[in-house]
Write a structure and sequence with these properties.
By secondary structure, the protein is of the alpha/beta class. Helix content is 54%, strand content 11%. The protein has a five-stranded parallel beta sheet, sandwiched between helices. A three-stranded antiparallel beta sheet has the order 6-8-7. It starts with a helix and ends with a helix. The structure holds a DNA duplex.
DNA sequence: AGTCCACAGGAAGGGCAGGCGA
DNA sequence: TCGCCTGCCCTTCCTGTGGACT
């Protein structure tokens, strides 16, 4: 492309009206004014938390629901409103939001409590203090603040899985020693059976109240998408039927609104890149593929090198035949390892790698018996051919083959 | 009915990194 | 800062097994 062409392209690009009016409305940290189809949950949570406005301690609360059911969104919505009211009424309230999945912030007991204490302006060394000390520092901070404190622990299942439930026990116990302040814990979890694995003492004190968020159905997703799209897109930027199809595609999975919104955003981006004036049904299909492709590629590339060799071997073998067996994969795997100077893992381990890849949804591996010819896994690749191609290219390149 | 293939997948332990308490 | 502990990856060794073949 010559220089003039390029200049033309850029000036044309500026002139071209964007499909988007406010793209941030489709970003996942967007906080809409109105939340659709969650009235019941919002009212329940609001009733549980409201006593704080009269100086009483609200019950601890647990919120369950699969991803994209509006848990984080509604809790943020409610607490923000609560804060406003508390401010005008001069009620001392502090809300701390923590996402427990964020590494380095809240992935150990020490860090988590330290993060909480820092919220009160307390300086805490990154390491070095005994955990007891951290607790008492935190305790003093809270007591000095003379406030009602809400601690929102999002994705709480992920830390409890990692560091155990003792931390929750300690946090709830602190409460009985506080005189001028009080702590209310709001746990948010994707895992519906999460509390079953908790220590009974923790369980009873923590899930004093529970609110469950069911998945959205296709109809509800449509409404949500409509609402967001009127903010996000120019008028008439969407062909009829697009919203309906987008909702249907996502409802088919498990009513994940986050995914539905992402799908619409990616479709919009693709439409814009094609310089199309409207989002069409075909853009949705492309977006669906793109998201899946990115997901698969992402998960593959995130794995260590050994896994790449296994994936490489599987992809190479499945080019010629529908399905392959563990043994074939392992033979090729060993050869490939030799040619890229990598010490091969044992078959036992590769067998585990294969089943891990299966769990990740990169491949399909089913144990079958071939009778006289043994028992093995039948490995197939279920994702589309163009995804395989990209994966193949990425992995080959990475291995230098 | 019995054999036997080609693995699956459990158990135990080695070795290593990274975090923890002192 | 250093040893200790823990969790993770991996190996070794092992037993288990569905069904085509004899």
């Amino acid at each position: 492309m010559g220089e003039n062409n390029l200049t033309n392209f850029f000036s044309e690009y500026i002139k071209q009206e964007s499909i988007f009016k406010q793209k941030s409305a489709l970003q996942n940290n967007f906080l809409p004014n109105e939340i659709t189809h969650r009235d019941e949950q919002i009212m329940n949570v609001a009733k549980i938390l409201a006593p704080v406005l009269k100086g009483n301690k609200p019950s601890n609360l647990f919120v369950y629901g699969k991803t994209g059911t509006g848990k984080t969104l509604t809790i943020r919505h409610i607490t923000e409103n609560l804060m406003k009211t508390a401010e005008t009424q001069k009620i001392p309230l502090k809300v701390i939001y923590m996402n427990c999945k964020m590494g380095k912030v809240a992935d150990t007991e020490y860090r988590l409590i330290a993060t909480l204490a820092r919220e009160f302006g307390q300086e805490i060394p990154i390491t070095g203090l005994p955990t007891d000390e951290i607790y008492s520092i935190f305790f003093r901070c809270v007591e000095r603040a003379e406030k009602s404190v809400f601690i929102i622990m999002d994705e709480i299942d992920s830390i409890i899985g990692k560091i155990g439930d003792e931390i929750l026990y300690n946090l709830t116990r602190i409460n009985s020693e506080l005189k001028k302040s009080q702590i209310t814990i709001i746990g948010i979890s994707n895992d519906l059976v999460f509390t079953d694995n908790l220590d009974p003492r923790v369980k009873s004190s923590l899930s004093e109240e529970e609110v469950v968020y069911p998945p959205y159905n296709a109809f509800q997703l449509q409404n949500i998408l409509r609402e967001r799209s009127t903010i996000a897109f120019r008028e008439d930027a969407i062909e009829p039927g697009v919203i309906e199809k987008c909702a249907a595609l996502s409802a088919r999975e498990h009513g994940d609104a986050r995914r539905a919104i992402e799908l619409l955003r990616v479709a919009g981006e693709l439409a814009e890149r094609e310089q199309s004036k409207k989002i069409q049904l075909s853009h949705l299909d492309l977006a669906d593929d793109k998201i899946e492709k990115d997901r698969v590629l992402d998960t593959i590339l995130k794995q260590p090198k050994q896994y790449h060799v296994v994936v490489y071997s599987i992809l190479k073998l499945t080019k010629n035949s529908e399905s392959v067996m563990t043994g074939e994969v392992y033979d090729l795997y060993k050869n490939v390892c030799n040619s890229v100077n990598l010490r091969p893992l044992t078959q036992r381990r590769v067998s585990d790698v294969i089943s891990e890849l299966d769990v990740l949804g990169v491949i399909n591996a089913k144990v079958t018996s071939k009778g006289r010819y043994g028992r093995t896994r039948e490995i197939t690749t279920e994702v589309g051919p163009e995804i395989l191609d990209e994966a193949w290219k990425a992995v080959s390149e990475e291995l230098g083959l």
